[in-house]
C-alpha cells in the first residue's frame, strides 16, 4: 500500500482499511482435487467447537466478496482453469492459503496423470498449512498468521 | 436362497450365451460371453430378477495379449456373477445396455474414455472424468499409456446463445456456495420446474486407479485411503479384504472386530456430517451447527483411538495396527451414550418440525420399483424399502460374528432418507457396544507376503453411502495389476438426476444433498 505524504488522510484511510480487513477477512473455499478430508476440516473450523467466525472470518460463496482464497487438494487439469478464474474474480488485495499436504506438494497424488501439481504452481500462495488433513487448530493458526502478516502491510 | 443355488440359477440363465464359465471363488461365477450376447445375457438376468448390476470394470491384459475385457458384475446377496466380454485392444465395441439398466450410463462412459472401447447406442457419450483438454484417442488406463502423449489440446469454447431459445439452462458449479466439492450441473428449467438435468464430473479426478498400478501393495493402501476423506476407513477395508483374499490370509478375529468398530465410528461421523450439510441446504443452520458440534465427540473418539481425525490409517494388510485398550473402550462407551441421546433428539426434530417437514416430506419420493430400476444403493435404497446392505446380504469380516440389522423405510422421500440415516446411528451405536463387550482376544495382524499371488477378486463393503465395490487383480508381482473402485455415489447419481425432473428448482439443492454425494469418491 502506498501513501502520499501530500495526502495524510490517505494514511489514515489505509490504516482503517487494513484494520477492517484484519478484523473481518472473508474467505472463499476452493477444492481443486482434494479428497474431502481438508474441506471437512475447514468446515469444522466454522462450527461451534472451533468457531473461527469469532475472529471475524466468514466463509463466502462468491469470489467477488472474498479476501482470502482457501485452496485444498492438488490441482487437477479440469479444475485448473476454474481455480485461476476464481482467483482472478477476487478483488485486490487478495491472499491465498494452501491447506493440506496435497495443496502444498501434491501429496500422495504426485505424478498422477490428471494432476497438474500443487497450488503454488498455479497461484501465488501466502500461507501454507501442512497436515493430512491439518487439524482445525492448525487451520486457525494458519489464518491468524496470515492476518498477522497482513497487519504489517 | 443360498449363494450356491443363486449361482446355479445364474449359470442356467446364461447357459445359451456362455462361451465358457468358471468358479474362481466360492461365491463367484465368471461367464465369458461374446459382445453380441451381452444384451440377451443382461436381459436374461434382469427378467429373472437376478440381483443388480453393481459395477463395470475395464481390464487391459497387456499389449502382447492384445485383449481388453469388459467385466459386468451382477450381485445377488453374496453371489457375484461376472459377464466377461473379450474385445480386441484397438477398435473393440460393445452394445450399450442403458435401455435395460439406466445406471450403466456412467460406467459405459467411463469404459469408453478410459479404454477406448466403443459403446454403441450410448445416449450420452460426452466426457465424464477426463478433462476437456484431454487429447482424443489417448486412453489412460491402457497399460501402454504414456503420460507424455496426453498434452493439453485446444478446446473450442462451448457454443453460446443456442438457437433453441425456448430453454433456460441454469448452470451450477463447479464453484458454488451449495456445493462444498466441485461438480458441474446444468438444470434446464421451465419457470421454476426442472425439465432436464445433466452433470459433468471429473473436477476431482486424479487418476488413482492408474496410480495404484505404479505403487506397491502397501503404498496403494495409503493412496486408496485418500480416495475419500470421509469414508477413508471403508476404502482401506475394502482393499485389505481383497488383498487378503488373494493372499489367502486369515485376519485375526480381534483385528476384524476393531475394523468393524472403527467403521461404526466412521459411519456415525459421516451421518452426522451429512445431517448437518443437508440441514444447511434446507436453510436450517441451527441443526447444522448442533450436529457438527456433536460430531466433534466422535471425531475425538477416532482421534483417541487412531491419532488422527480423518485418515485414521488403522488398517494394514493382514490386520490392524491399533488396539482398543480398556481405557479407550470406556471413552468410546461414554461418547456413544451421549451421541445416542443426541441422535434421538435429531430424529425427533426431523420428523416433527413443521417447517423442516415442508422441505422434506413427499419431496423427491422414489418408489421401490424406481429405486430398483435405477439401481440405487445404501441409505437411498433402504429409504425406498429395498433391503440393500452388504453387511446384511453378504456379511464380511466381523459382521458374521457381530451382525447388524438393516434399517429400512417405505416412503422413499427426503424425510425417509433422514429417518433411515438417523436410525442407523442407533443400530451402529448398539453394534459398537456389543463389540466392546465381546472384543475377541488375540493378535492384531498376521504377515502378508510382499508379492501377492496371481488372481482376481472382488470385495464389497458397506460404506456410509452404500455398497463400495473393489475389483483387484494381481499378476503375482509386488504391485497390483488393476484395482477398480466403484463408489456408491456414482450409482446413485442416475436416480437423483431423474428425480430432479419435475421438481421445483428450490428443492434441487436438498435433493442433491439427500443422496449424500461424494465427488472425490466418484471421480477418484
Write a brief caption for the model.
The complex is a heterodimer of chains A (153) and B (524). Chain A has 153 residues and is α/β, with parallel strands linked by helices. Chain A has helices at residues 8-23, 37-46, 77-89, 101-105, 136-151, and strands spanning 26-31, 58-59, 68-72, 75-76, 95-99, 115-117, 127-129.
Structure commentary:
The complex is a heterodimer of chains A (153) and B (524). With 153 residues, chain A is an alpha/beta fold. Chain A contains five helices and seven strands, in the order αβαβββαβαββα. Chain A has helices spanning 8-23, 37-46, 77-89, 101-105, 136-151, and strands at 26-31, 58-59, 68-72, 75-76, 95-99, 115-117, 127-129. Chain A is globular. Chain B is an alpha+beta fold. Chain B has helices spanning 3-13, 38-47, 104-115, 208-213, 217-225, 232-247, 253-281, 285-306, 326-352, 354-360, 368-374, 378-383, 390-393, 414-437, 488-500, 508-514, 519-523; strands at residues 18-22, 28-33, 52-60, 67-76, 79-88, 93-95, 118-120, 168-172, 184-190, 193-200, 315-316, 319-320, 455-463, 466-474, 482-486. In chain B, the strands form five sheets. Chain B has a five-stranded mixed β-sheet. A three-stranded antiparallel β-sheet of chain B has the order 8-9-10. The longest helix of chain B is centred in the middle third of the chain and has 29 residues, at 253-281. At the A-B interface, strand 1, helix 2 and helix 3 of A face helix 4 and helix 8 of B.
Amino acid at each position: 500500500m502506498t501513501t502520499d505524504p501530500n495526502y495524510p488522510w490517505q494514511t489514515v484511510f489505509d490504516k482503517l482499511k487494513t484494520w477492517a480487513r484484519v478484523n473481518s477477512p472473508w474467505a472463499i473455499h476452493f477444492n481443486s482435487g482434494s479428497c474431502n478430508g481438508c474441506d471437512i476440516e475447514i468446515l469444522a473450523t466454522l462450527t461451534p467447537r472451533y468457531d473461527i467466525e469469532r475472529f471475524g472470518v466468514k466463509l463466502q460463496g462468491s469470489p467477488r466478496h472474498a479476501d482470502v482464497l482457501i485452496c485444498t487438494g492438488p490441482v487437477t487439469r479440469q479444475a485448473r482453469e476454474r481455480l485461476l478464474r476464481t482467483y482472478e474474480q477476487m478483488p485486490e488485495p487478495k491472499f491465498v492459503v494452501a491447506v493440506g499436504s496435497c495443496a502444498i506438494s501434491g501429496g500422495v497424488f504426485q505424478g498422477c496423470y490428471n494432476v497438474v501439481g500443487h497450488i503454488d504452481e498455479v497461484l501465488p500462495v501466502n500461507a501454507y498449512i501442512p497436515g493430512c488433513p491439518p487439524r482445525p487448530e492448525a487451520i486457525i493458526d494458519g489464518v491468524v498468521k496470515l492476518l498477522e502478516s497482513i497487519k504489517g502491510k | 436362497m443360498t449363494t450356491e443355488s443363486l449361482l446355479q440359477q445364474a449359470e442356467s440363465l446364461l447357459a445359451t450365451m456362455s462361451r465358457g464359465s468358471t468358479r474362481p471363488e466360492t461365491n463367484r461365477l465368471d461367464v465369458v460371453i461374446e459382445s453380441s450376447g451381452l444384451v440377451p445375457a443382461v436381459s436374461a438376468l434382469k427378467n429373472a430378477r437376478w440381483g443388480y448390476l453393481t459395477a463395470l470394470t475395464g481390464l487391459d491384459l497387456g499389449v502382447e495379449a492384445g485383449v481388453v475385457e469388459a467385466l459386468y458384475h451382477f450381485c445377488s446377496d453374496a453371489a457375484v456373477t461376472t459377464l466377461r466380454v473379450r474385445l480386441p485392444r484397438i477398435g473393440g465395441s460393445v452394445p450399450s445396455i442403458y435401455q435395460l439398466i439406466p445406471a450403466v450410463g456412467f460406467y459405459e462412459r467411463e469404459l469408453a474414455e478410459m479404454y477406448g472401447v466403443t459403446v454403441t447406442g450410448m445416449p450420452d457419450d460426452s466426457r465424464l472424468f477426463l478433462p476437456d483438454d484431454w487429447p482424443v484417442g489417448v486412453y489412460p488406463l491402457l497399460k501402454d499409456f504414456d503420460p507424455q502423449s496426453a498434452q493439453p489440446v485446444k478446446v473450442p469454447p462451448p457454443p453460446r446463445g443456442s438457437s433453441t431459445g425456448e430453454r433456460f439452462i441454469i448452470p451450477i458449479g463447479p464453484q458454488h456456495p451449495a456445493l462444498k466439492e466441485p461438480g458441474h450441473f446444468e438444470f434446464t428449467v421451465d419457470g421454476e420446474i426442472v425439465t432436464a438435468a445433466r452433470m459433468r464430473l471429473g473436477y476431482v479426478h486424479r487418476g488413482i486407479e492408474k496410480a495404484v498400478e505404479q505403487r506397491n501393495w502397501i503404498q496403494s493402501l495409503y493412496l486408496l485411503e485418500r480416495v475419500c476423506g470421509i469414508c477413508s476407513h471403508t476404502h482401506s477395508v475394502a482393499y485389505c479384504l481383497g488383498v487378503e483374499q488373494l493372499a489367502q490370509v486369515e485376519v485375526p478375529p480381534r483385528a476384524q472386530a476393531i475394523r468393524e468398530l472403527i467403521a461404526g465410528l466412521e459411519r456415525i461421523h459421516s451421518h452426522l456430517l451429512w445431517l448437518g450439510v443437508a440441514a444447511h441446504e434446507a436453510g436450517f443452520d441451527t441443526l447444522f451447527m448442533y450436529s457438527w458440534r456433536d460430531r466433534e465427540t466422535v471425531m475425538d473418539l477416532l482421534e483417541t483411538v487412531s491419532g488422527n481425525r480423518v485418515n485414521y490409517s488403522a488398517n494394514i494388510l493382514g490386520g490392524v495396527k491399533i488396539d482398543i485398550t480398556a481405557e479407550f473402550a470406556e471413552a468410546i462407551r461414554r461418547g456413544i451414550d451421549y451421541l445416542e441421546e443426541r441422535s434421538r433428539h435429531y430424529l425427533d426434530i426431523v420428523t416433527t418440525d413443521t417447517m423442516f417437514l415442508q422441505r422434506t416430506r413427499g419431496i423427491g419420493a422414489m418408489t421401490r420399483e424406481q429405486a430398483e430400476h435405477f439401481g440405487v444403493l445404501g441409505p437411498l435404497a433402504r429409504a425406498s424399502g429395498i433391503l440393500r446392505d452388504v453387511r446384511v446380504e453378504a456379511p464380511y469380516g466381523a459382521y458374521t460374528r457381530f451382525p447388524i440389522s438393516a434399517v429400512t423405510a417405505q416412503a422413499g422421500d427426503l424425510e425417509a432418507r433422514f429417518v433411515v440415516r438417523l436410525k442407523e446411528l442407533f443400530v451402529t451405536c448398539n453394534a459398537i457396544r456389543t463389540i466392546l463387550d465381546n472384543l475377541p482376544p488375540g493378535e492384531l495382524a498376521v504377515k502378508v507376503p510382499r508379492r501377492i499371488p496371481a488372481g482376481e477378486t472382488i470385495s464389497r463393503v458397506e460404506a456410509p453411502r452404500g455398497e463400495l465395490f473393489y475389483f483387484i487383480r494381481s499378476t503375482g508381482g509386488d504391485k497390483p495389476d488393476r484395482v477398480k473402485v466403484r463408489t456408491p455415489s456414482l450409482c446413485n447419481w442416475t436416480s437423483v438426476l431423474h428425480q430432479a425432473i419435475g421438481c421445483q428448482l428450490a428443492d434441487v439443492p436438498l435433493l442433491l444433498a439427500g443422496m449424500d454425494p461424494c465427488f472425490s469418491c466418484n471421480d477418484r
